[in-house]
Amino acid sequence: MEGYGGDVISSALYAGDIRFVGRSFKYHRPRGSYSLADHDANALFSDGTRTHLRGDAVAAANGMDLRAVNTRGGLAKDALRITGKFGRFMPVGFYYKAFFRPKWLFPQAEKLLRRVAGLGEINRSLPSTCSPKDYDWCDVLVVGSGPSGMRAALAAAECGADVLLVEESARIGGSLGWQRGGESLLQDLGTRVTSEARIRIRTGTMAGVVDADHWIGLFDETRLTKLRARAVVFATGAIEQPAVFQNNEVPGVMLASAALRLVHRYAVKPFDDAVILTANADGYRAALDLHAAGTRIAALVDLRPSGETSPLADEATAAGIPLRTGCTIYEAQCMKDKTSLSGAVLCPLNADGQPMLDRGEPVSCDGIAVSVGWMPNSSLPGQAGVTFTYNEVVAQFVPESIPPAVFLAGRVTGIYEIDDRLRSGEAAGLAAAQALGLHEETLPSPPKPTGPAPSHPYPVFAHPGKKNFVDFDEDVHLADFAHAHQEGYDSVELMKRYSTVGMGPSQGKLSNMNATRIVARLNGQSINETGTTTARPFTHPVPIGHLAGRRFHPMRHTPIHDWHVAHDGEMIHAGSWYRPEYYRKAGETREQRLLAEATAVRRSLGLIDLSTLGKLFINGPDAVEFLERIYTSRFAKLAVGKQRYAVALDESGVVVEDGVVARLAEDVFYVTATSSGAEGFYRDLQRWASIWAMNVTLVNATGNLAAINIAGPRSREVIAKLTDIDVSAEAFPYLGVREGRVAGVRAMLLRVGFVGELGYEVHLPASRAMHVWNALLDEGKCFDLHPFGIEAQRMLRMEKGHLIVGHDTDALTNPVEADVVWSIGKNKPFFIGQRSLDVIKNQPLERKLVGLQWPAGYPGPLPEECHLVIDVASDQIVGRVTSIARRSTIGYPVGMGLLHPEFAKTGTRVTIQVDNGTLSRAKVVALPHYDPENERQT
Amino acid sequence: METPSTRRSAVAAFTGDPHPGVSELAHSEKIGLKGPEVESWIKRHHLPWPAAIYEVLESDDGSLVARVGTGEVIVESEGPGKLVDQIEGLLEASAPGVYRVEQQSATLLLRGQDAPAICAQTCGVKLSREPTGKILYTRVAGISCGILPQGEGEARTYRLWVDYSYAPALYSTLVEIASDVSE
């Protein structure tokens, strides 16, 4: 079928005489276009790629291939249309009350209902795309480009504000684009707004959410914009409301504004023969416009006994439009398949406003246009903190209290005459400018809502057929309210959740007002006493992809990253860093590679990139005092050129960090910390330095320095060839630190033994790391120097009994349990955690870090880290495995664990439960497993 | 003695300039000074000293001096023999209360007609409003950066100082967004 540029899907279909476009959620009743404003969810489509395309909002495009959602087997032959016949078995809330007996039935029924319920289907075979997200800023955001919004934007811009005007439709103008008499004003205001340099306009953009401090989420077809405005004007207008009568949702029944949109925006004649149901002047305007467009008006039915008092009534009469006052549509009559109208039954109303059924008058028509009232589009202002109160004069909610820097204009405030709307917009724009200090003159008073009321107070008519719908999305009809109320759901909040009124895709835009009226009447209360539900994001449904958008999860690269990748490093996430787990080699498994890399270090030489290590400087006259407060050790007598292992506790005595403290000068200390804990530890150091007001200068050099460890018996021979530092054992003993050059680059050399072998750490500027790495590899070739990854390193250090904080310790491990009490300096006046440690030392030990060992070739299952050690006799947990190497350079499996002291004695046999319930048996041994005399690393 | 060939760019893996609006200032060197005596030391040696924290001065040789704390500056020079080298030389003498800070952050440049759109997608600060002559610390694409806006109008450039280890992630993200924006 054909459409025109500027058509939306709904208008193109309607112009092609397709009135039946969807089926309802519960009963699968035929539905047609109702609002043409995206205020209903009758026209939802899928194109095979995207689903839930909104027919009133999405532009028609060449080649579109559309299907209605919520159908099985097509729109006409939808297999689930049969549910409509079983409506009486599906009263409100039926799924809470049915299918419980027998007990086995409920899960089956639930599965069936879930399969049947829901609307569109996601095409899972499509690759996910990334929609951009961006930030934007403005002085004044104006939401809505109707006459009030445009006037507000101009007023604010003329004061010097930077204005952003957003409009959810494709064109600016709001109701000026589809209500009679709007053309010249639209032309005038539209020209001024588009030519004003301080006004930016975004059409096709919905303001979906308002958050604190005027953070507003804007959604268009492609992206989410996170806008920060200094002031906001809501000119969001009003939403025309339905009347409730039998078959009020059959295709051919629509809002009068929808019919006018078809005429004025899309040049489509909506009906040949129409009945207009009204309670305001808008219905008369609609009748006259439709008449002018060639529609025969079979009847203009006015709910008001006195009818319309403006000249519009005479105009209608002069045009030959039959008028019925004090009358309603009792029932829309439809064809057998309910896909189109055949007529309407009109009934006069008695003094109580009830239809007099004995005086029903059938009228032929193919369309019914409804104009019985309006509801303010208050969702966004509500999110912004505006409260509303029901005004009986205009029979709608109007603003009651408004937070600072928020302003409202136009019909959302209950004002309907065009001159008043313009004045309202100007007042709001000037007020916004004044709030920003851009306007100093006295503000004009905004117009107040006055009668006659454009909304009927109760356009709801009962019918025994129970197909008079209040909520078209959820198929909630009038009788459902009475039933729910009988069951005790008598507040709007309970009624909403029990009946699901307002919970469909249109979020109550066409149902909440009538629902409130109905609940109020059932309770015998006023509207204000009844209240409304809370406005929450989003004002329209938004694609989840927009909310996800482009995600930023930056990972850190060491300076040697590219080399690792190029040399088959198996890169893994280690906290925020990429690190090589091991280096792949053809024909070898991961376990083989780990053992090979570790064995190479033990026998000869290995090279590992340690650039992720935390690297901090603590400088200044108070550096010693500062370090002695932070760590458990003493540093006053640490000589320049020496380093010491150091443990830091928190105030409850828990081990939180460890590393080495190296003294480079009297007042210069270089400190290492764990890769994952360094940033947080540095922040703590800054905090303590500030609290103690000490004369220290702290520097976090973690990203600025790289670190390379060359380890193994031949390491001295290699490093000696590249450095000007004397690395002989006498000149550079274990735990020494020197400054000099390596491969021509300024560096620090630290003699440490994390992996339990002779080794040197080279700490140097990050940009020079690749050069030094390559130099070490070149020089080490003759000793078969190879890199090793972090898993081999873990194995080696664990054989040596060196703990990893956060791995072999947890959030409760104290230094006694971790067996690092030896690091605590004697007679220290204070260090963080000292008082807690004094208490801990006097309490029974609850667990202890020990070594675990299995025999070579152990035939049973080996545990993973975190598997539990159990006392088989008492069936109690007595510990857990913290580290394990299934194959080690020692020749048998070894590990570490935290065990209850009773089971921690050397030689004890312990039982560990593995995943499938089988048991592993190990022996407790003293640490380290490897080189207990420390001959290798010193 | 160290030669220029020992230095490797943080974004060396990204060959060429994939997008003209995003590039690295490849030949910049930086040095940091921190400590309670930095201000007096700098003034004693008649070096540029920004009066306010976050103020940035340009020296005679085009080097940038950014004051990033009460007693902390970062200096950037393009090429040898300029202010950074001069400070390195001066630090060989004793300087109590003045501590040398290794500065290896990468310098990325964001400029051109797509720069505003790239900034809008990556930074919650309205950079176009930020004055020149000041450094701003914020996050770009989730990564902490120092940002120095330079120039106005079509010549507007944003100089980003980013940790060496985060530079590859930031560079590749900016290039990806720049490519999307310019499509």
Instruction: Provide the structure class of chain A.
Output: alpha+beta
Structural class of chain B: alpha+beta
Q: Give a count of the beta strands of chain B, DSSP E runs of length 2 or more.
A: 10
Helix count from the secondary structure assignment of chain A: 23
Query: What is the strand content of chain B?
Result: 25-35%
> What's the gyration radius of chain B in Å?
17 Å
- Estimate the helix proportion of chain A, in percent: 10-25%
Reported for the largest beta sheet of chain A, the result is:
7 strands, mixed
3D shape of chain B: globular
Low-confidence parts of chain B, pLDDT < 50 over ≥5 residues? none
Q: Which protein chains are joined by the largest interface, and how many residues does each one contribute?
A: A-B, 45 and 45 residues
Could you give a short account of the major beta sheet of chain B? 5 strands, antiparallel
Assembly annotation: heterodimer
Please state the CA-atom Rg of chain A, rounded to the nearest Å: 39 Å
- List low-pLDDT spans of chain A: none
> What number is the mean pLDDT of chain B?
94
What is the number of helices of chain B? Answer: 4
Order of helices and strands of chain B: EEHEEEHEEHEEEH
Overall strand count of chain A: 45
How far apart, in Å, are the first and last alpha carbons of chain B?
47 Å
